[in-house]
Amino acid sequence: MTSEDERFLRRAIELAAAAAASGDAPYGSLLVGPDGGVLAEEHNTVISDRDIAAHPELKLARWAARELDPDTAAATTMYTSCQPCAMCYGGIQRSGLGRVVFALSTEQLDAVKPGGGWPVVPQEGPALFDEARVPIVDFYR
Asked: 88, 97, 109, 134: least buried by Cβ within 10 Å?
């Protein structure tokens, strides 16, 4: 962790505070390019947008996937006030970002957040392998 990392994390925390001040959940993120400049900033807008996917990390990952070439995306760093959730991390992986630096871990967040984490939703599967694989195999041929 460098002093620059800490500076950008502090900015992510400022964005989180701004989100809370505007009535949204207190999460903020920014994307820093290979030259050290800030490419984009976002904060949580789940409440104001009525969109469960409006997490700042996912919004930045989607922006990067649309706007950056793969080499530039791979040279970026996302700074975020909290460790990305599984949904956001999936988007980050698919967008090709190079690095994520976060302030609070998921465990730390759950410890300070009233009510803790999310409930576990049961999943069942795998099933129907022979049928389900056909469109996948056909697509990637």
From this structure: 134
